[in-house]
Amino acid sequence: MATRTTLVSVTEQLGALNLNGESHAQEQAQTNGTHGSGHDGQGFGTLAVHAGQTPDPVTGAVIPSISLSTTFLQRAPNDPIGGYDYSRAGNPTRANFEEAVAKLEKGTKALAYASGSAATSTIINMIPTGSHVILVNDVYGGTFRYMTKVASQNGIEFDFVELTEPNNIEKYIKPNTRLVWCETPTNPTLRLVDIRAISTIIARYNSDPKFAPAPTRDPPLPPPPTPQDGIPRITFVIDNTFMSPYNQNPLTLGADVVVHSVTKYLGGHSDVVMGVAVTSNPAIYARLKFLQNAIGAIPSPFDCWLAHRGLKTLHLRMQAHERNALRVATYLSSHAKVIEAIYPGLPSHPQHELAKRQQKGFGGMVSFMIKGGKEEASRFLSGLKLFALAESLGGVESLAELPSQMTHASLTPEARAALGVTDSLVRLSVGVEEIDDLIGDLEQALVKV
Ligand code: PLP
Q1: Nearest to 262 by CA among 273, 251, 271
Q2: What's the gap in Å between 264 CA and the centre of ligand 1?
Q3: Domains of the chain with CATH codes
Q4: Strand blocks (E) in 353-405
Q5: Of 158, 239, 262, 385, which has the fewest CB atoms closer than 10 Å, so is most exposed?
Q6: Of the candidates 220, 256, 222, which has an alpha carbon nearest to the alpha carbon of residue 238?
Q7: Residue 208: pLDDT band by 50, 70, 90 thresholds?
Q8: Is the pLDDT of residue 410 over 60?
Q9: Residue 223 has pLDDT above 90, yes or no
Q10: Mean pLDDT throughout 39-58?
């Protein structure tokens, strides 16, 4: 009884706090979004700290314990006491993390996976052999690899399409198109895709009865989803890794599924590899939940706990990342040894207006082209002392890398050239260190070029 009273009072306290994050909304005056209104009248920071974190009803522990048990007690066959039966199918620590991410992404449900790539492959597994997928052309290298080397083996067709002009997509939509996959901003050239515009085009096809018949094949394709199934004919997925839910909520702009490499900003400390998918569509959720269990690419309870711990400071970290990234981008854009600095928060970015409209902030990723080629870029990267020369992004520490040799090495030279991933393009994940130290490090390394 005492425990129950404690729980009720914690919930009441939360309600009474009614923090709505308005002060942060004011700080974000330069962008078009607000973090002030979350679910249940709570703002982003409040949800980040409290969602999925009900104190333990038995011990009163404010931080729920990590649930390591692989199996769960049942009252009678198929009547589990707490709703869990086996930890691959569902786990309390994982469920806490999933609940928190669903709320932050303004979705209803989330599902966690062993990595961002596991989330990607599980989503692609939703569609049958013979389906066609449209992806933005500068998609994450691992997603490119999965489509070209794995999904292709399973009879999935695909097109990589330049989507900075949204209408381009219409040239590629086919009767067997089942999925559209975008990232925005893209990696590493930070181009934007207009999520609302693409979702409007997809919705038009999804509701067009003339577009219904599937192509005849041998063996024939399974019938396309119907509105009765609840899964859209073409499902629209956004990889929101670069923005994090703090800066962009694609579900509110018409996307059906949001996917994250939790390894990046959500975890935020470069110590856990994990992925997550979020949706508000019950039929998509049911299918992805089934696949989460059937394929089994689930994260460990400890990883879920670590990622959830990171999530609680997402709002604070994203503010610091953005503050530093804007200063770094501004510094680089006027440096004599830099041809071009790319950051959606700079007025010089060709899609700056779209960034202000679609995003609530500009994030922590900055790319730039050094004068010269591979040699000069390598000299700069080897000369860095504070920025670590390493793949990945989104952690509190600043990282630098050369996409042509590292993250995007799996692309053909022609594909890299078409995307503008030149030998001198450097990508920075700007961390949360002191800005003067970061700029000092860039300066001393540029001197060596
Ligand atoms: N999506 C994006 C945008 C990424 O940058 C990455 C990894 O770098 C992934 C997905 C894959 O995530 P993971 O490395 O967690 O498998």
Answers
A1: 273
A2: 8
A3: 74-214+226-309 (3.40.640.10), 314-447 (3.90.1150.10)
A4: 365-370, 388-389, 399-401
A5: 385
A6: 256
A7: confident
A8: yes
A9: no
A10: 88
Cis bond before residue 175 (omega within 30° of 0):
no
Query: Which pLDDT band, with edges at 50, 70 and 90, does 422 fall under?
Result: very high
Handedness of CA 88, 91, 96, 99 (dihedral sign): positive
The residues facing 136 across adjacent strands are 161
pLDDT tens by residue, 244-282 = 999 999 999 999 999 999 999 999 999 999 999 999 999
Q: What is the secondary structure of 301-333 as a DSSP string? A: HHHHHHHHHHHTTHHHHHHHHHHHHHHHHHHHH
Peptide bond into 185 cis (omega under 30): yes
The CB of 121 under 6 Å from ligand 1? The reply is no
Atom of ligand 1 nearest to the CA of 263: 15
Ligand 1 within 6 A of CB of 186: no
Instruction: At 209, list the tokens.
Output: 């009865």
Strand order in the sheet with 365-370: 338-342, 365-370, 425-429, 399-401, 388-389
Does ligand 1 lie within 6 Å of residue 240's CB atom?
no
Residue 244 Cβ contacting ligand 1 at under 6 Å: no
Q: Return the half-sphere exposure (C-beta side, CA atoms, 13 A cut-off) of residue 376.
A: 17
Closest CA to 185 of 164, 160, 161, 158: 164
338-342 vs 365-370, strand pairing mode? antiparallel
- Give nearest CA residue, ligand 1 atom 12: 116
Residue 6 predicted with pLDDT over 50: no
- What is residue 29's three-state secondary structure? coil
Residue the block writes with tokens 């460990």: 300
